[in-house]
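Forum > Structural Biology > Help requests

Title: Can anyone predict the 3D structure of AMP-binding protein?

Hi all, first post here. I have the sequence for AMP-binding protein but no way to get a structure on my laptop. I'd be grateful if someone could post the C-alpha cells.
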Amino acid sequence: MKHYDDNFAHQHLPSPELQPDYVFLDLPQFNRPEMLNCVDVLLDNHIKEGRGNNTCIRTFETTWTYQDLYEKANQIAHVLVEDLGLKSGNRVLIRSANNPMMVACWFAILKAGGIVVATMPLLRAKELTTIIDCAEISHAICDHSLADEMHLVKSDYLQSVCFYSNSQLKELMENKPTTFTNYHTKSDSIALIGFTSGTTGLPKMTAHFHKDILNICEAFPQYSLQPTADDIFTGSPPLGFTFGLGGLVLFPMYFGASTFLIEKPSPDMLLQAIQDYKITICFTAPTAWRIITTKVADFDISSLRKCVSAGETLPLKVWQDWHDATGLKIIDGIGATEMLHIFISSNEANMKPGATGVAITGYEAKIVDKEGNDVATNEPGRLVVRGITGCKYLNRIDKQKEYVENGWNVTGDIFRQDEEGYFWFVARGDDMIISSGYNIAAIEVESVLLTHEEILECAVVGLPDEERGMLVCAHIVLKEQSKATDNMKNHIQHWFKEVAAPYKYPRVIYFTEALPKTETGKIQRFKLK
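Reply #1:
Sure, ran it for you. C-alpha cells for AMP-binding protein below:
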C-alpha cells in the first residue's frame, strides 16, 4: 500500500540499512496502530471526548478553544483540497510567526494528507526558494504580514500561494464545513520535513512520521514536565523549529493543556505573559534565560513551575543565577532536528547543576571515539544516541552516512559521561580550539567569562595563528558599554588567568554591542569566525 498519492518524500527516504536502529519500542506507550493520523490524538479526540470548550491557544489579543481550532483547521483542510488542489503527500510550506492561524494551518495540512514544512519568519526569498526546490513544495500558506519575501520567490514547483491575516484565506474558509474526515494515513507516513540549521547550498531535510510526533509527547514532557490539562505553556522558539513545535503545540495539546503564543517574544513580553496569564511552563534559550534573570524581580512569576532551556548548552552561571533569583531549576536538554526533540535531559528528582542530564525514557546514549569504540568514564568523546526517533535525511545519502553510524545517531557534539551516567557538554564537534597542543572547549572559556561581574554575554571562537595553530578569541558584550577599553581587556585577561587554567585565557578580545543570533537564540559563531 502506498502512503500518499504524491510519494516524492517516501521515495527519497534513506534505505532501511542506512536508517538508525529504533529501540525501546517494547514500551507500551510507544506502540502505535498501523493506521494513524496524529491530528486525531492531538486535536480531534479532545472534541469527541467533550473538551471542546477548554482553552487551547491564547495570545495577548485573542483566545481560542479546542473547538475553535478544530473548526478552523477543518475549514482550511477543505480549502486545501477543494480550492487549492492539494493531493495527499504534497509538501506545504508555512511561513508565519507564532500565532493561532499558523497552528490551524499546521493541523489542516495533516488533516488533508499533506506534509508540513514550517519555516522561520526571518528567512529571505533566496532561502525560501532553496527549501521549495529541495522539497519540491507545491503549496505555500503565508501570513500576509510576511508577504513581501514570499512574492519574490520563483520556483517551478510552487503551484499555489495562499495568504492569511487578510481576506484571501478567510474568504475561502467562509462557506466551508466545520467538520472534515481526516486523511487515513499510516503511522509511518511522513508528517513533517524539518530543515536543519543553514539553508545555503543544498540544505539537509529530515523527515518525521506521524507516530514520531506522538511518541516525543510520551518522552520528554512525561519525563521532565509531568504536564496536566491545567498547565499553560509559553516560550520564544519559533514553531518552524522543532523545539518550539514540541514545546508550544504538540506537548500542550497532547495533554489537553493550553499554549500562549507570542509573535515577537522579547524577555519583557515573556515575563509579562507569565505574570498576567499565570503561565506554568516556559521554553526558551540560554541567552534569553540570562536576560530574563536580570528583569525577573519586576514581575510576579509565582505561577511558573517548569523552566526549559535548549538550543545550545546552558551555562552553569545562568542556571545558578536564575535559581538564586527565583528558586526554580532550569531543565537543560539537548535535542536535534534530526531526532525531532530532546533526548537527554533531567527532572527535579535527578538534576545535577551544570550537567545536561541523562538519556530520557525512550532513548539511550553513550560516548564513543572516532572509531566508534566506547570511551572511559569522564573521557570526552562523540555523543551518539538511539531510541524512538532517528535521523531520516531525504535525498542525502552522503549526509545520512555521516549522521548514522552502526545504527546510532551521531549528534556532532563532544560530551563526557560521569560515574552516575550524567552527560556533561564539552563542545560542539567544531567548537574545539587547539592552541599550542592544548584542546580548549569554547564553552569552557565562555563559562568562566560569564562569571565576571562586568560581562553580560560572550561567545568564544578560535582564530587561525601561525605560531600557536589557533588563538582563543572572545567576543564580549559588557553590561556597561562605556567600559569597553583596552584597560578592561587587560583586566579580563589577568582576572581569567587567576580563576582558570592560564592556557585557556582569551588572547584576543573584541567588545561588541550585540552577538549575532538565530531566531531561536543560538549564537551564530560562524559569523564571528
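The first strand starts at residue 55 and ends at 58. Residues 446 and 460 are 6 Å apart (CA to CA).
Shout if anything looks off.
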